[in-house]
Amino acid sequence: MSSIDTSSLDAPAQNAALPAARLGWALAALQALIYGSFVATFIIHPATMTRALAPGLSVTVALVFGLCVVFSTIALAGLYVLIANRTASGRGE
């Protein structure tokens, strides 16, 4: 197996990934908190999640909360890509 020669990489290029990694971990922790609150609500008080949003409406709190979890995942992933790409390119715009 051949090894990758990293001697040609300069120090700033090697350290450029560090802020993106920290951002990734922070956003992952935020998403875990969002999803954890969704699961915890089901465990602690399931009646809240099975309640309809309005009388006669078949849409439950769980459906809306679940969609919010999915959309927050998409939004946080997009935010990460946007910030990490700007950081990596050095533009900072």
Write up what this structure looks like.
The chain is mainly α and 93 residues long. 72% of the residues lie in helices and 0% in strands. It is built from four helices and no strands. The longest helix is centred in the last third of the chain and has 29 residues, at 61-89. The radius of gyration is 21 Å and the shape is elongated.
List the main descriptive attributes of the protein structure presented here.
single chain; 93 residues; mainly alpha
Walk me through the topology.
Blueprint: H1 11-15, H2 17-44, H3 46-50, H4 61-89
Helix pairs in contact: 2-4
Q: What is the beta-strand fraction?
A: under 5%
Work out the helix count: 4
State the helical fraction: over 70%
Spatial extent as radius of gyration: 21 Å
N/C terminus separation: 41 Å
Spell the H/E element sequence: HHHH
- Outline the low-pLDDT stretches: none
Main beta sheet: strand number and arrangement? none
Kindly name the structural category: mainly alpha
Mean pLDDT: 84
- Give the strand tally: 0
Shape descriptor reads elongated
Compact summary:
The protein is mostly helical. Helix content is 72%, strand content 0%.
